[in-house]
Design a protein that fits this description.
The chain contains 23 helices and 17 strands. The chain is an alpha/beta fold and 589 residues long.
Length: 589
């Protein structure tokens, strides 16, 4: 492909789904819904205006139902996302408040909806948890759909695209993303969104490159522009030079060849050259992601985040609902272990329907096990569901945000109460379920020897442990650069937990982001981790790295590493010792 001389433009966003694609852009015009005028409604016409709004909402529901029916088979597992959008259309925060605004303020439906969204959206955007921040996009997406029906704007039908293109949009709703046909869409770029957005999850399911959060995408890129989308680095190149294009083609070929080779071997066990085996597990938050764990050769589920079942509904879920979600995952995994983390919510993951507290510093407030112990009936409902699901496979239960032995004892007491109540109700359950804790608070590290007497395993959650140990808010860009998993303090904490567990005869796992980076594998192997859990797509590379290592040769490296007094020094030692092996194994296996 010969390109005219042009000035290339580089745009930086967030990696939504890895991979590289090159081709022509196709701008999805979603304009129109932002241009809304306010006007007064006479009292005699208020009911007509309310009915007009209800009609637009009902039409939006019908549209989503039709999309769900037409969703390709590979995305059927994500139909719950569209179900969530349908539920949000009825949510009192949107539906009820909009009708209330029309009636009380005597304003048109478009303006009432826009006003309500302007209030609700920041509630989510200001939450420190990435997953919750992305729910602001859901609010915007469903309101856009209703708004289009109110103003009669034309709708883009992605399923009608009949040429190979890269979609460029202000945003893509789950409904629109689920219409993507792989034979016509190579990838996409959006102004909004992030790694935890539903759009990003679907992109990873389809395994097409996606870069999200590129603020100037729709303002800079035009239909038929040649662009390069690197979903691994989060970079988008517009009107690339011939040399940039050649380089990208080479990177694309290397990436796809590497992915094919590593994935082909992903079902092989992660055994070092001298016979030491590590279990490599997958982290999931949606039941449908279990398929991805199996596909990439996961040895089980090391972290099943259960918050989604609570966040995607207007009230607390019932026991049967939770049981069915857990049972689905457990049955698919067969005899492979499924580690279910109990509710890690409130604080920065506040439930809209239970916002009975407003905390100045939610990261240090009523979250995780603290919230569950404060709400024993909600906790007991979840524990009963987990115990029932455990009948169908190998289930482990894990308590988050543990900071003391007292919390472990109280949580176990409620677990026993759940067993007693199930027995009384003559409902089948598994009695000998393994119980563990998340080690993510420094006090849990310091008292690990005391806690080890009360649990069957530790699972180190590095994301929070690093944040709490180094006193760093990961969402604060002024200090985010100080957040480093290879800080000597973090390495020593991990070593201490592993040493204590080994002495107590229990296992140590890791389920934080640190576990999924191949550069950390020699350290984690040398420190004595028994199991690593990560994003499913990271499993093949982690397994490949472990198969290339000799555990005995790692020991002197660990001794040397523990003498390093800076994160930079540790990184240099890793690169000097294993840099070539990592490159050859992960990139050229």
């Amino acid at each position: 492909m010969t390109l005219p001389e042009t000035n290339e433009i580089i745009l930086q966003g967030i990696s939504g789904s890895p991979g590289i694609c090159i081709g022509k852009a196709y701008l999805v015009d979603k304009g129109g819904v932002d241009v809304v005028e306010q006007y007064h409604i006479e009292k005699s016409s208020i009911q007509n205006e309310v009915n007009r709004y209800k009609t637009a909402v009902n039409k939006a529901k019908a549209e989503l139902q039709k999309i769900m029916e037409d969703t390709p088979d590979e995305l059927k597992g994500h139909a719950h996302i569209l179900e969530t959008h349908i539920a949000l259309l009825n949510d009192k925060m949107l539906y009820g408040k909009t009708i209330e605004s029309i009636e009380k303020e005597q304003i048109n439906a478009e303006w009432a909806l826009k006003k309500v969204v302007s209030i609700v959206k920041p509630m989510f955007e200001n939450m420190s948890d990435a997953y919750l921040r992305e729910r602001a996009d859901d609010i915007v997406q469903i309101s856009d759909r209703v708004m289009k029906n109110l103003i009669g704007a034309d709708r883009v039908d992605i399923s009608d695209i009949d040429k190979r293109v890269i979609l460029i949009a202000r945003d893509l709703s789950p409904a629109e993303t689920s219409q993507i046909q792989l034979e016509s869409v190579k990838g996409f770029v959006t102004n909004r969104g992030g790694k935890a957005s539903h759009t990003s999850i679907i992109a990873r399911t389809l395994e097409i490159p996606a870069v999200l959060g590129v603020e100037k995408a729709t303002a800079t890129i035009r239909t038929d522009d040649i662009i390069i989308v690197d979903g691994t680095t989060g970079e988008v190149v517009v009107n690339p030079s011939e040399q940039t294009l050649i380089d990208a083609e080479e990177r694309k070929a290397r990436y796809e060849a590497r992915k094919a080779v590593i994935t082909r071997k992903s079902n092989l066990p992660a055994i070092t050259t001298d016979g030491v085996k590590l279990r490599i597990m997958g982290n999931i938050e949606l039941p449908e992601e279990v398929v991805s764990v199996m596909h990439y050769g996961g040895d089980g589920i090391g972290l099943y985040r259960t918050e989604f079942q609570y966040l995607s509904r207007p009230d607390f879920p019932g026991e049967d609902f939770l049981f069915e979600k857990y049972q689905d995952v457990v049955q698919v995994m067969g005899d492979k272990p499924v580690t279910i983390r109990t509710l890690d919510i409130n604080g920065d993951k506040a439930l809209a329907y239970n916002n009975d507290t407003e905390e100045e510093n939610p990261a240090l407030g009523q979250r995780g096990i603290r919230y569950c112990l404060r709400k024993p009936e909600i906790f007991k409902t979840q524990l009963r569901a987990i115990l029932r699901a455990a009948v169908f496979g190998t289930v482990r239960v894990m308590f988050p945000m543990i900071s003391s032995v007292e919390e472990v004892l109280e949580a176990r007491k409620l677990l026993e109460a759940a067993k007693t109540s199930l027995k009384k109700d003559a409902i089948p359950y598994k009695d000998d379920i393994q119980v563990g804790i998340m080690v993510e608070v420094p006090s849990a590290v310091v008292t690990a020897d005391l806690i080890a007497k009360e649990v069957d395993f530790f699972s180190i959650g590095t994301n929070d442990l690093i944040q709490y140990a180094l006193a760093i808010d990961r969402t604060n860009r002024d200090v985010a650069h100080l957040y480093h998993p290879l800080h000597p303090a973090i390495i020593r904490m991990i070593k201490h937990v592993c040493d204590v567990a080994r002495k107590a005869g229990i296992k140590t796992f890791m389920c934080g982001e640190m576990a999924g980076d191949p550069i950390n594998i020699p350290i984690l192997l040398g420190l004595g981790l028994d199991e690593l859990s990560m994003n499913p797509q990271s499993i093949p590379a982690a397994k490949a790295m472990i198969r290339a290592l000799d555990s005995q040769q790692v020991k002197p490296f660990i001794d040397d590493m523990l003498r390093r007094n800076t994160a930079a020094g540790i990184v240099k030692l890793i690169n000097d010792t294993y840099g070539k092996l990592i490159t050859e194994t992960v990139y050229n296996e």
